[in-house]
Amino acid sequence: MACGNKPGCCAGEKKPSAAISSSSAEDADAKVTAACCDPEADEHCDETCIESLAAYECQKACDDGAAAVDEHVHEHGDDGRHGAVACSSHLRLAFERFSSYLETAQCICRSVIASHSLTPCCAGQAASSNAVLGHAHIHQDKDKLDLDDTSSCSGHDHDHDHDHDDTHSHNDSPAGIIKGTAVDLEKSAGHEHILLAVSGMTCSGCGNKLSKALQESPAVYNVKVNFVLGNAEFDLDTAHTGLDALIDRLDRLTGFRCVKASSSADDQHLDLLVPAGTAPNVTVESLPAGVTHVDTLDPKTVRIAFDPLAIGARDLLQAMGDRTSGLSPLNHRDPAASAGRKRLYAMLYKTTYAALLTIPVLVLAWGHTLTDQRTKAIVSLVLATGVQALAVPEFYKPAITSLIYSRVVEMDMLVVISITAAYIYSVVAVGFNLADKPLATPEFFETSTLLITLVLFGRLVAAYARIRAVEAVSTRSLQPATALLLEDAVAASSQTREIDARLLQFGDKFLVSPHCTIPTDGRVLEGTSEVDESMLTGESLPVLKKRGAQLIAGTINGSGSLTALLTRLPGKNTVAEISNLVEEASSHKPRVQDLADKVAGWFVPVVTIAASIVLVVWLFVCLLVRHQAAGGAIGTAITYTIAVFAVSCPCAVGLAVPMVLVVAGGIAARAGVIIKSAESTERAHRVTDVVLDKTGTITTADLEVVESVLLQPPESHQDTLSLISALVRDNKHPVSIAVSKHLASQDQNQDQPSQRLENIRTIPGAGVECIVGTSTLRAGSARWLHVQSHLDVSRLITNGMTTLCITRNSTLIAVFGLKNNPRPESARVIQRLQSRGIPVHVVSGDETKAVEEIALAVGISTAHIAARQTPSDKQAYVTQLMEQGKTVLFCGDGTNDAVAITQADVGVQIGSSSDVSRATADVVLLGGLEGVVVLLDVSRASFRRIVFNFVWSALYNVFAILLAAGAFVYVRIPPAYAGLGEIVSVLPVILAALSMFWTRRSQAV
């Protein structure tokens, strides 16, 4: 296929003939493959690719001796060879099949190469076993259609950067068959980005242990662990260490259960059920082209990763045939919550088991029964041993594993010391009792059993609270489980079929019924309706959607029906992208977390020292003050020591920061504020000054041309406008976009192909320029072009308009006057900020008059106005404020203010759901300027709760340890009840984080 690679792809190859002159399907194969190697083509996948495919299939039909369609009629050449052009029937069928690929910026070539088993030139995900692959494509998607961010090897509207091997050559034989064993050439060889789902982590100490275990491997780097969400993310050098070996090592070192959660960022995956024992037989080699990896999750479930551009999910499921019984019943909400729920159920079973054995022990110890003491002791020993056995995998194994492999003494060791001391003393006491030599302090199996049960119960409650918190703020839960697929591409007679949303694939058209959730991102083809996007943008007003509008996954349709073309797959759509950013931000450690980690790190040694002191003190008290016997003194001292070990809990310190960050990030995301950096949450509450860009930030992004002046003779106006249109068409500055739209609406020759200019250069903060023949054409600000004094320009500026001036060889040939209105919320937001004592500044590259007019309309003082600012001037303005000791928040739209956004203490960018991942700022606002207030409120609420959590953790541990140690003599915590310490210390921390839900958005919280 003619994917139109840029110069350098297949360098040195002769450009193939435009005509298909082969006499066989093999020659047609060669033609399709060779056409992929056109070094001179400027375009990417377009109608030419479809025409080439139609010609190939038409040739194939002739060679097979059977017409693929009834109308397959056309003439052959005098020599009997097939013509260069396909018959009309094959053309029609090819366009019906692949036109949707052009709309979604997919690579037709890759799909056809995979489906027809051709020798690939651009094999990105699958490599032929005998085709020579000497180059790779590194994609930098600049999707002008604002669609899927998944790059293809040749999309019409995105650019490619190619890395090539100088020795690259093509296999002349068309016999190369694409196998599923493929080499992903878009990644560096031997390197893979890994995301693990981890179960068993309960606090930051667990996260630090896993992080340390990962970092000890020389093949692992860029480690990020989030214990609240239960995942670990890192890059792995698979040439040095295999993933399976690494996971086995992690399981051994940490005791956590680690499972690979996802494959390449470019891949999709399906979890399929297979008959027991057949999972090992499902291999990449046994599956169709496009499958990149197969993992066995359990004996009856396999995870198949595949390239969605080469094979669709439904096609893959169909190819599995009777080897699978269907999709695995996956939790369609949040995988982190799903993994946490599995852990919750396991903890529930363990707690129930422990409680069933503990209750009889308590009855025998505290009740009045007719059973003799010896029988009570034996029964209690048996039951307590059963509970103690439960503690082996839950407490003993992780504690001892950490001590041996990681040389870390963690909280589980405190529990182990407590229950071991109580159990062993009780066993010894039973032995003395059976020997008719009872100790002064008899056995107390109720202490070890109740301690284990209460600690398990505390972890059960804490796990439940964490899951509820994660689910409450999860944006992944917005992803619906099913979709209505349109079976027929001809919409009028289409039948719908409800399918699992995981089975959607590129090229699909789906129906959104009234009041239903939109299953994934798409573009409206038919219908009109209003869509509620408040769950992602925070905007309460519904948004009108009609033909050509973009739909966002997880938003709710109004009263109309919409037919849409899929643009992004579930798992890679806006909901998933926002969720990934929020989770990534919560996995970053702010500076305050370092303090928490240091405190938690010293906690266990300090408690151990304190418990040792308690043991010695109570031995002296019992022996010298109370004059107890040695046996009784030892028993009493041990009970106080056990209580100290059991009641202390560093988990509250470890949860103090991460729990708040997870909840804060989720709440902000639901309000349309995507926090990409945990440091932003930490710093935003200290903001003293807010600096706003004007165009696209205080004002709406859509400027309107209200006046245009052409200074050329009337007969050349059309040529002048055509040149201006070509110059500004691809520029993303709001002024250029507005002028381009204005010129397009005024174009009287829209049927004629518009001219294109090459080598257009953008000068940030100034404009654009281009060499046209012997002339230099420039478009930009009046100050840059030195035309401020021109009569028409000065008049427009005086009237408060933004101007775009165009010069040819320094001579003004046109000027456009533009105006836009302040955002509806701008004045309200600025007033609220100023009422909090936060000065608001405005900086802009526009002329002073235009900036002053907008500032006056929204209530900004003229003392805080900076006009005619270049990008470096904006950066200098922010720097000047910071040098005065102020904490600065800068908010812009990312156009000409990226350096200022980066310079500020908190960089905020107003964007849209389509560019949230490409934004360079720490914070992205999807719902308008009100997000600035939301950010400040969320940050302040987070800070208050973090402070509360630290204070509570400190007070609890000091007071609880003093009570357990017997410092108040007559008031103490019995060791049997010390197990409640975890729930008492942790639950308030989680509730404090969740309390942010009980406050109103954008108010002081």
Walk me through this protein's architecture.
With 1005 residues, this protein is an alpha+beta fold. Among the domains are: 25-164, no CATH class; 191-330, 2-Layer Sandwich (Alpha-Beta Plaits), CATH 3.30.70; 480-570, Calcium-transporting ATPase, cytoplasmic transduction domain A (Distorted Sandwich), CATH 2.70.150.10; 671-698 and 824-938, 3-Layer(aba) Sandwich (Rossmann fold), CATH 3.40.50.1000; 704-819, Calcium-transporting ATPase, cytoplasmic domain N (3-Layer(aba) Sandwich). It is 43% helix and 16% strand. Strands 20-32-31-30-21-28-29 form a 7-stranded mixed sheet, with helices on both faces. Helix 10 packs antiparallel against helix 15.
Brief rundown of the structure:
By secondary structure, the protein is an alpha+beta fold. It contains 29 helices and 32 strands. The protein is 43% helix and 16% strand.
